[in-house]
Amino acid sequence: MAEIGEKSVGIVKTHIVRVIEPDKPLKLDCGKTLAPIDVAYETYGQLNEAGDNAILICHALSGDAHVAGYHSPNDRKPGWWDCMVGPGKGIDTNKYFVICSNFLGGCSGTTGPSSINPATGKPYGLDFPIITIADMVRVQKLLLDKLGIKGLLAVIGGSIGGMQVLQWAIEYPDFVKAAIAIATTTHLGPQSIAFDAVGRNAILADPNFANGQYKGKKGPDRGLSIARMIGHITYLSEQSMREKFGRKLRAREHYSYDFNSEFAVETYLDYQGQSFVERFDANSYLYITK
Predict the structure, then answer these.
(1) How far apart are CA 178 and CA 157, in angstroms?
(2) Chain centroid to CA 101: how far?
(3) Fold category of 1-187 in CATH
(4) What is the pLDDT of residues 196-236, one digit of tens each?
(5) Model pTM score
(6) For residues 251 and 8, what is the distance between their CA atoms, to the nearest angstrom?
(7) CA-closest candidate to residue 102, choices 145, 54, 157, 53
(8) 189-290, which class in CATH?
(9) CATH 3.40.50.1820 segments of the chain
């Protein structure tokens, strides 16, 4: 059950708004166009009369617009950054108007490869155009325009969300007063590119991938799970993995001498991969990591 205290934003709702109409497509960095475009977003707090207290939060790869609060009283967990966003918290919703949107290409309400392609009446799949961080940010700006926001007190994000923060500062320097980029970079190095490529190939090699047209069928769960496992190896340093797991066995005192997960680190990766499949779309993973 939801634990709604005085520092919680309470029960919230994800909204969806159309920012690009079918007859006015958005030009993307890849040279292609995309329309229509819908954006899923949540807001917390109130925009003041001066309109100068808005903060945009940009989520990481597997995140969504649900930053804080609960969608229903029966939710077991709050939004992914509930510890930071709410009345009296670090990002105080008594002072600030907070916005977070699912970015372009995502799978939590914003237009992405699982959306319906108006040209075919089927999900885009691999017909979805390649997108960039700059494309994501331009769509976020269109959302803010729709909401009547004239400027941002701050834009905050980590990982790929931090990349969006940096892009905001570059593309709209007069619109953003402060940019708070967490655990991010301006570009991926060759090792990160390589890990992402292996993850994508795990998805593409899954026999259930069906060229991206798997909606309504069994999807490439195994491939997506492996991709997530690879990702989680990169999220921890060698030292932190040694401290967290060492060579601890899963739940026994002796080796099993079989191919089941034996070490604690294997169990950790199994869990992360399996739980990810339940909430994320493989096509979105391909496009976001590309």
Answers:
(1) 12
(2) 9
(3) Rossmann fold (3.40.50)
(4) 999 999 999 999 999 999 988 999 999 999 999 999 999 99
(5) 0.93
(6) 37
(7) 157
(8) mainly alpha
(9) 1-187
